[in-house]
Amino acid sequence: MDAETQQNIDLSKQLLKQIAENNSVPRNIRRAANEAIAALENEADSPAARAQNAIAILDEPNQDPNCPNFARTRIWRVLSNLEPIRDA
């Protein structure tokens, strides 16, 4: 895995942890953030597969009307970081 891909994954995990640890965020969105972190940490998958799994997990909370604006903005940033990740 190249350095840029690793940096994008690390930044995404950091942003997701901020969502997961914030008690003002609804529980279902915090759960999705934790599931996305687990998907990004799954060493059995390729970096592209990990990124796509996390994107799929974050699709529902991104559409949730109960998602606070700051959490939605962080989710968008995570999605922007993960979308360009492809297998070499």
Structure description:
- The structure is a single chain.
- The protein has helices at 3-20, 27-41, 47-63, 69-82.
- With 88 residues, the chain is mostly helical.
- The model has no long low-confidence stretch (mean pLDDT 94).
- The termini are close together.
- It is 73% helix and 0% strand.
- It has a single domain, classed as Up-down Bundle (de novo design (two linked rop proteins)).
List the helices and strands and how they pair.
Elements: H1 3-20, H2 27-41, H3 47-63, H4 69-82
Q: Which descriptors apply to this entry?
A:
single chain, mainly alpha, de novo design (two linked rop proteins), 0% strand
In short:
The protein has 4 helices and no strands. By secondary structure, it is an all-alpha fold.
- Number of helical stretches of at least 4 residues: 4
Proportion of helical residues: over 70%
In round numbers, the mean pLDDT is: 94
CATH architecture title:
Up-down Bundle
Q: How would you name the CATH homologous superfamily?
A: Ta0600-like
Largest sheet: none
Number of structural domains: 1
> What is the number of E strands?
0
Order of helices and strands: HHHH
CATH topology: de novo design (two linked rop proteins)
